Amino acid sequence: MASTTGSDRARAALSYLRRKISSGEWPLGERIPIEPELAEQMGVGRSTVREAVRSLASMGMLETAPGRGTFVRSATPTSSLLDEFLADFSLEEILSYRRALEVEAAQQAALHRSDEDIEALELATVEEVGCSRCPVLSLGDSGAGAFDSRFHRLIFDAAKNRLLSSLYAGINDQLRTPQHRGRLANVATSAEMERDHHRVLDAIKRRDFIDAVHAMVDHVDHDVVIVNEQQEVVPPLFRTPEQQQRMDDVREGRPATA
Ligand SMILES: [Zn+2]
């Protein structure tokens, strides 16, 4: 049955390309190889490649810019339906929801991570150290990678929950839109980011979901924040000095002060 073979090939081509993207081999913002090259790599016809690229474009993972090539736009499928839905909410609401997703992903990752996930996370930690890619490239930078850190994306992969991943990608897309981008800042230094990432990774590695949750709660607190017109940080949550002290104790691994 020729049609079955054809659709099998199309499916295989689609998952081949998708894997390249989700694994980070083709990072966000990168131009993917041209059609004939891909056809040769996969051993399929150019029309099969074109069809797979079109499918991934409709999922929001690839974007073809006429005359320039095809670029990686999202590591997970996003939907314009979700974009439209999220557009009705305030930045405060979106960030709060994003924090919830990050914390749940960290917890799930601690429970479901594979050894391959840990390897990929360790690599991302090393590669993203010292640069401000977590999760905002740099303030005012409108690059495709803004609000995207491979480390964070891989935690969602390790969580093995496609819905969490898709929602996270959709949220990050929303943060990149012009009405939100200018109001966001990343307040942590790269040293703080590095320390935070190691704590999260260490907990996930040990399969300690309680530590993973604590480490991520602490991290997302200064991950992406809102700044007002005077460029002052608006804290995501108001905490009394005593409450902040308890957070700091947990972060430093000190026994909680009474
Ligand atoms: Zn981070």
UniProtKB/TrEMBL annotation:
Residue spans of biased composition, Basic and acidic residues class: 245-258
Family annotation (InterPro entries): GntR_C (IPR011711), TF_FadR/GntR_C (IPR008920), Tscrpt_reg_HTH_GntR (IPR000524), WH-like_DNA-bd_sf (IPR036388), WH_DNA-bd_sf (IPR036390)
Keyword DNA-binding in annotation: yes
UniProt domain HTH gntR-type: residue ranges: 7-75
Pfam families: FCD, GntR
Positions of the UniProt region annotated as Disordered: 238-258
Alphabetic keyword roster: DNA-binding, Transcription, Transcription regulation
Name of this protein: FadR family transcriptional regulator
